[in-house]
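Sequence only, no structure available. Ideas?
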Amino acid sequence: MDDSVKTRGYDTILVSDAHTTEDMTQWGAPPPEAVIPHTNLYWRNQRAPGRAGGVIESSEIDLQLPSSSPNNQS
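Reply:
I predicted one. C-alpha cells follow.
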C-alpha cells in the first residue's frame, strides 16, 4: 500500500481493469501486459495496521449513495 494512503488512514481498493501505464521496456521494465497482472496480484492482499487494500473489477463498483445517507437529496 502506498505510504501516503497508509499514513492517512484510508482503506484502498484498486480497480483491476482500469489501469493506466506506459511501455517502459526500453529502460528494462516488463511490458504493460505483465505489469498490470503483477500490480493486481500485489494489491490483492495488501494490509497495514488497521487498514486494508484490495482489488475489484470496474463492474463491481457501485457509486450510488445509500438511500439512508444524509447526502442523498433525492
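The mean pLDDT is 82.
Hope that gets you unstuck.
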